[in-house]
Amino acid sequence: MKRITIAIDGYSSCGKSTMAKDLAREIGYVYVDSGAMYRTVALYALDNGIIKDGKIDEARLQEEMKNIEISFQFNPERGRPDTYLNGKRVEDRIRTLEVSNHVSPVAALGFVREEMVRQQQRMGQEGGIIMDGRDIGTTVFPHAELKIFVTASAEIRAQRRYDELTAKGEACDMKEILRNVEERDYIDTHRDISPLRQADDALVLDNSHLTIEEQKQWLLDAYKRATAG
Ligand code: DC
Hints:
By secondary structure, this protein is an alpha/beta fold. 48% of the residues lie in helices and 19% in strands. It has a 5-stranded parallel sheet. A 3-stranded antiparallel sheet has the order 5-6-7. It is globular and about 55 Å long.
């Protein structure tokens, strides 16, 4: 069967990566979490004093992009790839609230996006890939055979994020998380370069009231339809 390209875009914390990862495992495709790449750049900037008091030293970040090597290694225990920065596993560090709070302005920088998109397109050269993010169906793989646009209400997404962080033992405040979700939605949809928007030929999935199982089935059906014939 033809190995297609699947682009999954949508708002933050709406379960894109869970559904993408599950489908990838089921159909034997490579899964790439493009948000993890932007998070890794933000982590590097925080670790190296390139972001200070919320301000990004853009000239320095641009200069240091060549020192940021991002890779993924499949972790059989988690059933999904872990993210590495210059050979070090950073999967947990890129998911903290600190990185979440600083990543959107980093992801809005043109030179960061150019480099990430270049790497993402290289990863998808052979097909057989599922990538999730914000601009995958519009910019990274505009010719993807299957494009999905995922939405859910901001409150439901904040609740999911809260549950995820508290399960990991991270202290968090529901109001702050909701504010973070809404702020990221705003920046992601209003930035100048590749803002989050639904591709004209994307299928829309509102998963506010779907169980993981129902969502899995919906996605598998969409995949089967896309590869039929
Ligand atoms: O999906 P996520 O929350 O891990 O994404 C982290 C940030 O990166 C978020 O602010 C949106 C941004 N992002 C992006 O601009 N383009 C992508 N393809 C993926 C993520």
